[in-house]
Specification:
Helix 7 packs antiparallel against helix 9 (271-288). The two termini are 28 Å apart. This protein has helices at 2-16, 41-49, 92-106, 123-132, 153-164, 182-192, 210-226, 259-266, 271-288, 308-313, and strands at residues 27-34, 67-72, 76-82, 110-116, 139-144, 170-173, 235-243, 248-256, 292-300. Helix 5 links the parallel strand 5 (139-144) and strand 6. It folds into two domains: 4-192, 3-Layer(aba) Sandwich (Rossmann fold); 210-313, GMP Synthetase, Chain A, domain 3. It is built from ten helices and nine strands. The structure holds guanosine-5'-diphosphate (GDP) and magnesium ion. Residues 41-42, 54, 62-63 line the site of magnesium ion.
Length: 320
């Protein structure tokens, strides 16, 4: 029943918006954003599309699915693919994330290789250089967090420039958080694109169904409010979205691996779950621009990370 509901929403989304013909000289293309966890990939995408569609967090590895953000300007349409942070996989979920990131790299027109300019480059960055070296897609080295660079920033910049130099990658520096210098990045990106059509309606900012983003907004509050206590083994399913005249009722389940995690999520007399719920509700209200009633359930699903089948059941796209 819930699936039918989702399908209806998607159909409305597709049929509701018309794709006009692109003006002469219009450019378009797909832009992959890669980088080790926590360098600011999701922040960049949100800033570029001007809306919060990817969740961000001070804790590494927040983004799981490939998420497309769409930016349409008078001269170009850029479709950004936010990939999970690339790192060496330790378990089944890690392998899926890496695999998806590799697919993303191979199927885009330009790759933005994001690094954290406030800290020296490390093994994580070199691991990505090795992944990017064999591909033919143009790469732009993006030094992010320019607002947070230390006094000896030239040393760091030089450090990163050495990653790009052997491959002739262009490079640029900005702050995804403040937006400083992002117009330079955009111009650089547009010069790399070929003429092309509108792939999506000009007013659309993401290809993800609203439900997916709702789940992500709940997950974001869990990461924010419980910090390291509840590891990244939480997954959210949106079980029902019921649109009434004045309010949208949403029922969602938080899946965890252990009873102890369930305890943390619920908190003393339900206080934690209440905080998560009310913070997430506010975010979702902004997303749908309307009043929301949100009810959360917590369910223990042992060892879901190990099982690809369960990953698929919980709605993670496993590609390839
Ligand atoms: P991702 O894992 O690469 O997607 O990284 P996120 O976008 O989730 O960002 C990780 C953390 O870095 C968050 O706390 C962001 O607020 C922070 N961050 C991202 N971009 C910038 C930036 O340009 N400047 C500063 N100071 N912080 C940033
Ligand atoms: Mg992210």
């Amino acid at each position: 029943m819930t699936d039918i509901y989702l399908e209806q929403n998607l159909t409305e989304l597709r049929e509701g918006s018309m794709i006009p013909p692109a003006p002469p000289g219009f450019k378009s293309g797909f832009v992959g954003i890669v980088g080790r966890p926590n360098v600011g990939k999701s922040t960049l995408m949100n800033q570029l599309v001007g809306q919060k569609i990817a969740i961000t967090s001070p804790i590494a590895q927040t983004t799981r699915n490939r998420l497309q953000g769409i930016l349409t300007t008078p001269e170009a349409q850029l479709i950004f693919v936010d990939t999970p942070g690339i790192h060496k996989p330790h378990h089944q979920l890690g392998k899926v994330l890496l695999q998806n990131a590799q697919i993303a790299i191979g199927s885009v027109d330009v790759v933005l290789f994001l690094v954290d300019g406030s800290v020296p480059s490390g093994g994580g960055d070199r691991f990505i250089v090795d992944l990017l070296t064999p591909i033919k897609t143009p790469v732009i080295l993006c030094i992010n967090k320019s607002d947070q660079q230390p006094a000896d920033y030239q040393v760091l910049d030089e450090n990163y420039a050495q990653l790009a130099a052997p491959h002739n990658w262009k490079s640029t520096k900005f702050s995804a958080l403040t937006g400083q210098n992002l117009e330079v990045l955009l111009q650089l990106l547009i010069t790399q694109l070929e003429p092309g059509p509108y792939y999506y309606p000009p007013d659309l900012v993401t290809d993800q169904p609203e439900r997916f983003i709702m789940g992500e907004l709940i997950r974001e509050q869990i990461l924010f409010l419980t910090r390291e206590e509840v590891p990244h083994s939480v997954a959210i399913t949106i079980d029902l979205v019921k649109e009434e005249a004045k309010i949208t009722r949403i029922f969602a389940t938080i899946h965890v691996e252990r009873d102890s995690q369930k305890g943390i999520l619920i908190g003393k007399r339900g206080s934690m779950l209440k905080s998560i719920g009310s913070a997430a509700r506010e975010q979702i209200q902004k997303l749908i621009a309307g009043k929301v009633y949100l009810e959360l359930f917590v369910k223990v699903q042992p060892k879901w990370r190990q099982s690809r089948l369960r990953l698929a059941e919980l709605g993670y796209r496993i590609e390839g």
